[in-house]
Amino acid sequence: MGNWDVCFDDNLVPQNNCLVYSFGIHYDFSFDEAMAAIGCTVYSFDPSMLDTADHKRGDRVFFQRIGISDKDDDDFVPSVDEYDEQHPAVNGWPKRRLQTILDLLGHRKEQLTVLKLDIEGYEWDVTRDLLDSGILSSVPQFLVEWHLLKDFPPQERVPDAVETYFRVRDMGFQFFHIGSFFHPLPNYLIMKAKVAYLNTKRN
User: Fold this and answer.
1) Which end of the chain is more exposed for a tag (fewer CB within 10 A), N or C?
2) Residue 113's pLDDT is what?
3) Domain residues for 77?
């Protein structure tokens, strides 16, 4: 679907009441629009798109200029990489926990069909919060791009990231697609892995 893989087996993407949250757009709505084209209601989130206000992009796609985090924060300043150098955090970015966003949009009692995270290294902390809170256990499909960048997460936090990765598996998420990208440089290795998971133990 656009640039992400989604599993449609056994009616996992229902024709009615399909709700998708897509975090990390960078002006590319191809996944979001593809999911909307099959009848899903899609909410697209990206706090770095400073020149884009909240708006209804199409009949079923809604853009919100906020990000996801493991805490509610109106003044979040991201680590600086090649992407953030082009999108500086002027006065900080607004970020919210997933449960806060669900409340803000009136979706607390609705079922998320697909949750997508492409948030440049912050997926480790966010996923840990989703696991600790138990909110991830109700999500049928979890699409995430895992990042290990030059200095992020910091080296001392890499064991926590590894633990988070295996906690996702232990919760019952089984991947059905992996797309990896490794970029070795003289003194370090950049790794990005786009992984699509199916929740085999959904409540």
Assistant:
1) C
2) 97
3) 18-199
